[in-house]
Amino acid sequence: MPDYSINVGNVELVSLSDGEPTRSPFMPFPDTTIEQWREFPHLLDGEEQIRSRYGTTAVRSGGKLIIVDTGLQAPDGSGTLLDDMERKGVDRNAVDLVVFTHLHPDHVGWNLVNGKPTFPYARYLVPRRDWDHWTQAEVVAGAPHISGQVLPLNELNILDLIDDDYPITDELTTISTPGHTPGHVSIVIASQGERGYILGDVAHTPAQAHYTDWNPIFDVQPELARSTRHSVLDMLESEGILVSAGHFPAPGFGHFVRAGDRRQWRGV
Ligand SMILES: [Zn+2]
User: Fold this and answer.
1) What's the whole-number mean pLDDT along residues 104-131?
2) CA 176 to centroid of ligand 1, rounded, Å
3) What is the mean pLDDT of the chain?
4) Is residue 232 in a domain?
């Protein structure tokens, strides 16, 4: 099996990327120090920049092909998602469902190209509380990605709002993990006695395995995001659950494990 694909029981996960730009670690995490980042030398390049991957997970479950989040579709044309899908044998015409962990621009970017749905035969599932947040008049006014990549799905009648604990298939269920955005969800996988977890933006970097208090500037409700991050990462560590983390270094599959007094991310 190639390293971009992994199975959880009968469920297959395929890691996809829409690009991996480098940036200063202080852009997303202004309250951190370079000394802290140097504890993770594998995360820093020669200029002490970090890579920030725009990850998407394709999931095959119960005869359905599901895409979790759709990347950024960077305006400069550098987005790689569609090429990556083709390279990894994920046919966009065969996608049944697109599920969003939340409605940030780097998670909804490829919903449409030139006004046409990128996944022409798919229903697009949006967590209801994130929809309620992002479609408020004063919020949508400052969020062009909602006008450009989310509202048109509703006008095309291909968008469904989903409530907490929504059964996507018999093996996949959404779970509320709020704070990064008000309606943020993660996805629980259970199949053949094995378990997995699609993290969404509960964490953005493996450094948060140890520095779990770190809030990126993108957290809409920082205190709630922090308490969610602690409880989710504690649970994933103690239960040894396989995680797919979209912003972590490719392919983003791994486990949160304890090593002495530190929790670490151990990639698969
Ligand atoms: Zn986000």
Assistant:
1) 97
2) 14
3) 97
4) no
Do the domain assignments include residue 86? yes
How many domains in the chain?
1
The Å distance, Cα 260 to ligand 1 centre, comes to 31
**Backbone phi, then psi, for 72, in 5-degree steps?**
-105, -35
**Mean pLDDT, to the nearest integer, of 216-222?**
98
Domain holding 42, by residue range, is 5-192
Position 77 scores a pLDDT of 92
Tens digit of each residue's pLDDT (9 = 90 or more) over 31-61: 999 999 999 999 999 999 999 999 999 999 9
- How far, in Å, is the centroid of ligand 1 from the Cα of 193? 30
* CA–centroid distance, residue 213 to ligand 1 (Å): 17
Which residue type occupies 36?
Q
Beta-strand (E) ranges in 142-214?
A: 159-162, 172-176, 185-191, 194-198
- For residues 158 and 124, the answer to whether their CB atoms sit within 8 Å is yes
- Residue 247 in contact with residue 53, Cβ under 8 Å? yes
CA nearest neighbour of 111 among 70, 142, 80 = 70
For residue 101, the CA-to-ligand 1 centroid distance in Å is: 8
Output the CA 104–ligand 1 centroid distance in Å: 5
CA of 119 to the centre of ligand 1 (A): 21
Query: What's the 200 CA to ligand 1 centre distance in angstroms?
Result: 8
pLDDT for residue 2: 75
CATH code (residue 177): 3.60.15.10
181 CA to middle of ligand 1, Å?
7
* CA–centroid distance, residue 11 to ligand 1 (Å): 25
